[in-house]
Automatic annotation (TrEMBL):
Organism field: freshwater metagenome
InterPro entries in alphabetical order: DH_E1, PDH_E1_Alpha_Subunit, THDP-binding
UniProt protein name: Unannotated protein
GO biological process, one term: pyruvate decarboxylation to acetyl-CoA
Keywords tagged on the record: Oxidoreductase, Thiamine pyrophosphate
Cofactor names: thiamine diphosphate
GO molecular function: pyruvate dehydrogenase (acetyl-transferring) activity
Domain Dehydrogenase E1 component: 20-316
Length: 332
């Protein structure tokens, strides 16, 4: 089995590998939905079908020694960055083979070998942490970058404005990515936010900003490359607004009955998997037959992952007291 780092390298420039990772995320989330219904997922869980291009596009541009802060809707980000399906599913199912030993669960994943700092269930919590990581890189004289991925709802909280303001003042090497998937939990953006283009809020902080098509991995890579190059060269932060749409409800308890009729179907015409498939077929890299083979193979692979995680042991009560502190050697 490949390590997280090896899986991360696979998608750097290989367009087919990028598509396969997107298919992996989609199939993974579909299986999580079934496992949740069967009572095999501990607590709640939040799925990201429809946002695969954004997740993989971000990972393809960053280096493993950059750091990423994601939200509770973080399965796709974790898989895109390189975590194995076993480590992610094991964590979601509360098993010891999970990336955090099964004590974090669906909303709290971490793997520093590929730069994934713990995902957070607190809305917008990753914004100031990413700025803090960027400050550390700046002080250390490194060219690494910090990345915060957050939803449209988080752009209305104080940490968003505080984080952007501080990053702008100190020209921190940080990229703020607003995953505007139209809904903040159960509320449509037009009912909570007085503007449509959230990236324009960066004007208040004299920060470069733009929006991009989050359903198109090529657009994501292009925008990310621009922002990353600016950050690495000392040009400071960028706010990117990725226009996406979540195909599932807020959480598995949410049937999304509040959506206007036809809205989901309209967005599904821009399904990131379909957009990517069309591009790969047009360029001659894949055929419809190969696409179907990739999808069928992934279904088989995911069943193997489920079997492995189902058989894995659960953590003991003592596990919750591990990884709380580490001894520090006294300096001479």
């Amino acid at each position: 089995m490949k390590t997280s780092l090896q899986r991360r390298q696979d998608i750097k420039t290989d367009k087919i590998a990028q598509y396969e990772r997107m298919v992996e995320i989609r199939e993974f989330e579909e299986q999580i939905n079934a496992l949740f219904a069967a009572g095999l997922v501990r607590g709640s869980t939040h799925l990201c079908q429809g946002q695969e291009a954004l997740d993989v596009g971000i990972a393809a541009v960053l280096r493993p020694d950059d750091v990423v802060l994601a939200t509770y809707r973080g399965h796709g980000v974790a898989l895109a960055l390189g975590l194995t399906p076993e480590s992610v599913l094991g964590e979601i199912m509360g098993k010891t083979n999970g990336c955090c030993g099964g004590v974090g669960g669906s909303m709290h994943m971490c793997d520093m070998s590929v730069g994934l700092l713990p995902t957070s269930a607190i809305v917008g919590a990753g914004i100031p942490i990413a700025a803090g990581a960027a400050l550390a890189f700046q002080v250390q004289g490194k060219d690494n970058v910090g990345v915060a991925v957050f939803g449209d709802g988080a752009s209305n909280i104080g940490a968003f404005h505080e984080g952007l303001n501080l990053a702008a003042i100190w020209k921190l090497p940080v990229i703020f990515i607003c995953d505007n998937n139209v809904y903040g939990e159960y509320s449509r953006i037009n009912t909570t936010t007085p503007i449509e283009d959230l990236h324009t809020r960066a004007e208040s902080y004299n920060m470069p900003h733009f929006s991009l098509d989050g359903m198109d991995i090529a657009a994501v890579e292009k925008g990310m490359t621009e922002a990353v190059n600016r950050a690495r060269s000392g040009g400071g932060p960028t706010l990117i607004e990725a226009k996406t749409y979540r195909f599932a409800g807020h959480s598995r308890a949410d049937q999304a009955l509040y959506r206007p009729a036809g809205e989901l179907e309209q967005w599904q015409k821009r399904d990131p998997l379909k957009v990517t498939e069309e591009g790969l077929v047009a360029s001659g890299l894949l055929t419809p037959e190969k696409i179907e083979k990739i999808k069928s193979d992934m279904k088989v692979r995911m069943q193997e992952v489920i079997e492995t995680c189902s058989a894995a042991p659960e953590p003991t009560l003592a596990s919750m007291f591990e990884n709380i502190w580490t001894p520090v050697k006294a300096s001479k």
